Amino acid sequence: MLIFAQQVINGLMAGSAYSLLGLGFTLIFGILNVINIAHPEVFMVGAFLGWMLVTYANANLLVAIVGATIGASIVGVLIERIAIRPVRSALVLSPFISTAGVSIFLQQGAARVFSPEPQPYPPSMATVFHDVGGLQFSTMQVISLAVGAALMIGLKLFVDRTWLGRAIRATAMDRETASLMGVNVNTVVALTLVIASALAAVAGVLVSVAYNSTWAFMGITYGLKGMAVMVVGGVGSLEGAMAAGLILGVAEALTVGYISSSYRDGIAFIILTFILLLRPSGLFGQRERQR
Amino acid sequence: MISAYWLEILTMAGIMSIAALGLYAIKATGQLSAGHAAFMGLGGYASGVVTGKLGLPFFLSFVVAVALVLVVATAFAYMTSRLRFFYQAVGTLAFGETLVLVMYNVPYFGGASGLQPIPLQTTFTLVYVILGLSIYFFIRFEHSRLGQAFRCVWEDDTVAASMGIDVTKTRILSFTMGSAFAALAGVLYAHFLGIIEPKDLDFLRSLTLLIFVAFGGLETHWGALFGTYVLTLLPEVARFSVYDRYTIYGALIVVTMVFRPKGLLTRKPLGAPDGPIARVGMPLLRVLAAVLPVGRRAAKAKARAERP
Amino acid sequence: MVRSATDGADIVLRVTGLEVRYGVIPAVKGVSFAVPRGRLHVIVGANGAGKTTTLKAITGLIRASGGTVELGGRPIHRLPAHEIARAGIAMVPEGRRVFAKMSVYENLLMGSFAQRGDPRLKQRMEAVLERFPRLRERTSQLAGTLSGGEQQMLAIARGLMAEPKLLLLDEPSLGLAPMLLEEVFAIIKRINDDGVTVLMVEQNSQQGLQVANWAYVMELGQIVVQDEARRLLDSDEVRRAYLGG
Ligand SMILES: Nc1ncnc2c1ncn2[C@@H]1O[C@H](COP(=O)(O)OP(=O)(O)OP(=O)(O)O)[C@@H](O)[C@H]1O
Ligand SMILES: [Mg+2]
To answer: Partners for B (CB, 8 Å, 3+ pairs)?
Structure first.
C-alpha cells in the first residue's frame, strides 16, 4: 500500500510535466491545425534558460522560471512565424517537416553550445527529501505538482472565462468568422504560442531541477509523450490533456514499481495504440477533425 | 577509385533510398507514415533471426522478412484505415514506438544491445542492383493503372471514389507496398552493419526518412531518391564539427520547406509560374512580413494617409 | 419619384469600381454602389454571380485587386478584416458560421468582441435577446446543437451585438423552410426599421425584393440593373431576364 501511494505521488509529479506539454500541443494544434514537432524543443530551451540563470546569475527558482518563460515564449512565437506560417497552407506534411527541421536545429545547437552531456545544477538547488509517515517526497515534487495544478486551473479559467480566451476558442473553431468579430487572428496565434511556450518552459525548468539534469536532447522523449497525451486526451480538449498527462505519469510510475523500469517509456504508446483503435477521438474529445 | 569509406557511405545511401522509395509509395496516396523505420527494422530483425540465429541462407531472409512485413503492414493498415492525416501519423508513430519497446524487452532479440551478430552479406553491388530494380519498378508503376489510381486518391479521394476506385483498398495497398520496400531496405541494412538495434526502429529514424522524402520532393519517386542522397552525402562533405553540421542541416530543412513546400524536385519545370525561380522571392517576402511588423505598418500608414 | 439609390442622403457605404480576382479569374469586375444611412439594400443574382465575393471584399476577407470601399467617407479597403469589423461593419456570413462549440450566450458575446469592456454591453444583450425570444430560452445551449433557423437567428443576433454602422447579410434565407423564411425576413425588416443600415445578398429574390428599398441585380461579376426594389419586383421583363421567373 505504501509503495502504491509512493508511486502515485511520483507519477503525479512526472505527469504534470506531460500535461503541460500535451496542453501546448493541443493549444497549437487547435489554432493552427499543425503538429509543432519543435514544441518539445521549447521545453528544452526553457530548461536551459532556467539552468543558465541559476548557474551563471545565481538566480532562485522563481526568477529562473520567469526568465525561462519569457525567453521560451519568444522562441515559440518565432518558430510559428518562421517555420509554420509560411508553409501552413501547403501540404499537411510541409509544416510537420519544417518544424522537424527547427527541432533538429535547436537540439544540435544546444548540444553545440552546452555540450551534448546532461548539465547538472549547482549544489544550491539540491532537492531536499521529506519523510511523512513512510512516504518520501522532495520539495521539488511538491512545488512541481502545485505549480502544474495552478497553471492548469489558471489556463482553464482563462480560456473559459475571459475575452481573450474566448477569442482563442473562436479562432480555433473558425478563423475567418473570428476575424469578422474584430479578433486580430495574428495576435491570437501569437498569444496561443506564448501560452503554450510558457507552459513548456515551466515544465522544462521543473523537470530539469527535479532530475538535476538539463540536456540538449531532453525534449525527445517528453515530446513524444506530450503528443501521445494530446491524442489520448482528445485533440483540442484541455481537460483531456490535463487528465491524460497525469494518468500517464501514474501509469508509468506504477509500471516502474510493479513491473520493470524498462517498460516505462513505452506505456504511453501502448495506451495511445488502444485509444487510437478503440476511440480515436480521445478520452474527452468530440469528433475526429479531418483536413 | 572510390575509397572504402565512400563505398560504405554510398551503400548506406542506397539502402536508405530503397526505404525512402517505399515511403514515397505510401505518400503517393496521400498517407503519412511516421513509423516507416519500424517496418524497415521489423524486416531487419526478421532477416537477422533467419541468418544470424537460425543460420539459414541469406536469400531466404528476404523472403521471410518481406512476407512478415506484408502481413503485419496489411493488418496494421486495415485496422487503422479510418485514421487519416494527423491521426494516421500518430498511429504509425505509436506502432513504431511499441515495436521498439518489444525489441528492448525480449531477450531473444538481444534487448538494448540489439540483435547480433548478423552475417555481413550486403554488398555495394547487391544494394545497387536492388535499388536499380526498385527504380525501374517505380518508373513502370508511375504509368500503370494502379499508379494513376494512387495519384487520384491523393488528389481527391471523393473524386477517386466516384470514378470507381476503391479508396480504402488502394490506401491499404499503397501502405503495404511501401512497407515491403522498407522491409527490403531493412534486410540489407541489418546485413550491412551486422547488427540491428531497437533505436533503428524509432520515431527519430522514421522522421529522418520523412525528411528525406519531403526535402527531395513529394510528388515523384525521383524526389525521394534525390532527397536521400543530398541529405546523406551533405553532412559527409560539409567540413564542420558534427554539431555545426547538424545545426546547418536543420536550418536547411526549414529553409527548403519555406521556399519549396513540396520539396526540391516537383512536377513543375524550373521556369513555371510556381517553379523554383518564381518561388524564391515570394516566400522570402512572406517570412520577412511575418517576422517584421514593417509590412503591416506600411499598409496601415497608407490607409491612414488616405483618410480624409 | 426616387430615381437614384442615394439621392443626396448621408452615405454609409460607398463601393467604387470594386474588382476581385481568384488567381487570374475575375469574380467581381468593377462594381459600384452606395448605401445611405437607414436604408435596406439588396443584391440579387444567380449562383456564382459574385455576390458573396463582393461582401467578402467589403469585410476584408479577400483583398480587392482594384477599386475602393469607404465606410462613412473613410477608406477601409486596405484594412485587415478585424479592423474593418472594429470600424463598424458586422457581417452575417453565408451558411451562418456560428461558433458551434460555444454557448448561444458566448456567441453573442463574441459579436461584441470589438467593444469588450463597454459597460453598456449588458443592456445591449438584453435588447438583442428581447428581439429574439427563441434565443433567450437557449442562452446556455451549444450553438452547434441549434436548429438551422435558430442558428440563422443567432448569426443575425451576433451581428447586432456589435451595434454596427452597417449590417451585411449573406443569404439569410439559405436552407430555411418557407415558414421560417418569412419570419427571418420580417426580423430583418424590423431591424432596419429600427434604424440599422443593411446590405443584404439574396438568391431568394422574391422575398428579398419585398423587404428592400433598393435592389441591384448582379450577373457575372457586374451590376447589370438597379432600381427601386418594388419596381424590379413588378417589372416582368427584369424578372424574366435576371431573376429566373
Ligand atoms: N475561393 C475561391 N477560389 C476560386 N474561385 C472562387 C472562390 N470563391 C468563389 N469563387 C468563384 O467566384 C465566382 C463568384 O462566387 P461567389 O461565391 O461570389 O458567388 P455568389 O454570387 O455568392 O453565388 P451563390 O449565390 O451561389 O452564393 C464563382 O464563379 C466562384 O466559383
Ligand atoms: Mg454566395
So the answer is: A, C
- Of the candidates B302, B303, B308, the beta carbon closest to that of C73 is on B308
CB contact under 8 Å between C76 and B306, yes or no, is no
Alpha carbon of C232 to those of A21, C52, C88, C244: distances in Å? Answer: 61, 21, 30, 13
Residue C140 pLDDT > 90: yes
A291 burial level (CB within 10 Å; 0-12, 13-18, 19+)? exposed
List residues of chain C with CB under 8 Å from any CB of chain A.
59-61, 80-82, 85-86, 90-91, 93, 97, 99-102, 106, 109-111, 113-114, 116-117, 158, 162
Contact indicator for B153, B161 with CB cutoff of 8 Å: no
Mention the CATH class of domain B4-259: mainly alpha
Ligand 1 atom nearest residue C54's Cα: 18
Four-CA torsion A220, A190, A238, A246, nearest 10 degrees: 30
Minimal-distance CA residue to ligand 1 atom 25: C47
Name chain C contacts of A180, Cβ cutoff 8 Å.
59, 61, 81, 85, 90-91, 93
| Sequence spans of domains, chain A | 24-218
pLDDT in tens, A224-282: 999 999 999 988 889 999 999 999 999 999 998 888 888 888 888 988 888 888 877 77
User: Average per-residue pLDDT in chain C?
Assistant: 90
What's the Cα-to-Cα distance from C89 to each of A15, C68, C111, C112, C117, rounded to whole Å?
A: 47, 16, 11, 12, 19
pLDDT at B44: 96
Residue extents of the structural domains in chain B: 4-259, 276-306
* pTM: predicted TM-score of the whole model, two decimal places: 0.89
> What top-level class would CATH report for the domain C1-77+203-245?
alpha beta
